[in-house]
Amino acid sequence: MCNVRTLLQVICLSLIVIQTVDSYSFALSKFTRIRRQARRTCTSTEFACKSGECIDEDKECDGIVDCTDASDETNACHRIKCPNYLFRCKYGACINPDLECDGKPDCMDGSDEKTSKCKPDDSSPECKANEFRCSSGQCIPEDFKCDGKAECKDNSDEIRATCWNVRCPGFTHKCKYGACVSGNAECNGIVECFDGSDEDPAICKTKPTPRPTPTPGTPGPQPTQGGCVLPNHPEFGEWQVYGIPGQFSPGMVIRAGATLRIQCKKRYKLEGKNAIFCENGKWSDAVGHCLKLCPSIQSTSTMRVTCIYNKHEETENCTEAVEGTLVRFDCAPFYEDLGLSRHPIHICRDGSWDQRRPECTPVCGQKSVNAQTLIVNGKPVKKGDYPWQVALYTLNDKELICGGSLLNQRVVLTAAHCITDDKGKLLSKENYMVAVGKYYRPFNDSRDRNEAQFSEVKHMFIPELYKGSTQNYVGDIAILVTRVTFTLSRRVQPVCIDYGLKYTSYTNEFGYVTGWGYTLQNDKPSDVLKELKVPAVSTEQCSSAIPEDYDIYLTHDKLCAGYLDNGTSVCSGDSGGGLVFKFDGRYYVTGIVSLSPQASTGGCDTQQYGLYTKVGTYISDFIIKTESQFRP
User: Fold this and answer.
1) What is the annotated signal peptide range for this record (predicted)?
2) pTM higher than 0.70, yes or no?
């Protein structure tokens, strides 16, 4: 039988064992509960942390540690492809490019503040051996680093990049981001880790105490110990608390050092800073405004866009234009939009531009303003006066066979008989080469070197009714599409076309034909581009004057122009060229050189009228349908 002293020892020992077992059981049940809570199955829109937690998939590799084990911000982020407009952290995460070198680490590893763009503040003093240098250049005592409180103004002493590898003594508590705080900090109701991880509700099984809704006459929450009142969310946007877990709403008080990140909804742009922080009871800046964006407008090869904001900030493009932004449009040289002269500046209002976007189209039917004058055979011919003139050559021997007129940078109007056999069958497009900007007839004339442009033919089109001489050349019109898109210049510009058939009366008016045809009957072709001024004559007058065997070609789609017994007429080498008339200050192609009578001695009869295919006859059914498919 044991004595009383022995009995007391046994009882005490039993109590110790029971207490130990109870403590172990409590700790085990707590650990098991946490694991059971964390090990739920993550949904398809969540990221599964290695710890078993589930976080929103958008939070993976965003620079912010959300998993307790930081498994959402590791080198595995390199497998994610960052869009070109984002900054890529050294370990692979993608963050807003504006955060690079902003004085505050935003990548988990702080690499956004260590790039070549981040120039250290030369005015910052050198820190002593027992001091820590903040990213901003500020110096603080080394012991203040990773202690749970931010002493650096930029918080760089309390971030994962600084603290993760710090070894905490066994009697301390390691914060989620790596700092070391008091061993009894966990779940004691007081936030001691800078990121608040010591009071994580998932571990502590606590909920924030609901705050009463303020009523009229009741003062709202007041900042304490340097904290700040959370502001209202911006309209069309929101703020998020960075680095501190928990649920937050406007009106709540948050501790000093807290950072808010502000972002706007899609199609809105933030005016103001995208991050503000709490210091000494005040926010570093006010929450900015989310302004609605107007549709993006960018410069093109034919139009220059200048964006003007705040009356002095100018940029090349308007990709993020907000309320009040002005945009000025300027057409490129040799392009125009007639409405721009009246309204060159548009305004962004409530997410839309106040006027339609202009369309710059090639200037048509205008002679070169700064034309160089040459003298040929005693008559002044201006080089560059007819920038729509096209020369059509055979590809093999480079012989000029026809002319043409440029309708746009890829489309040429010419005569069907230039590219068909006598029965109207198309020849191979491989036979031809198109040249623009030419003044001299020879294909490779060095005098045209800086102005001429060349292209092979990609497509050829003629009207279905064209059958050549078997149908008296009815439908003698063709469209060529070039492989190359020509560049507009002083020497290369399109002619105008009367798409609306506004100018249909031209009898007795004078038109102009250009080409490299024969200058005199039985003479050699012209070496330079020639101009012929001819009057349009009525069908009746023409029919009564031309030879009978030539009259059969005066069909419904032909117009007659020229002189009788004058010695000037279109001839071989001029075929396919345009007959242009000037209406309202511009030249419109009205006819295409088709036929001229033969002289008894051979060659062209320069004493007779010439016949031209009426362009207006084929505007709707042929030209518009074809040309519109190949506009640059």
Assistant:
1) 1-23
2) no
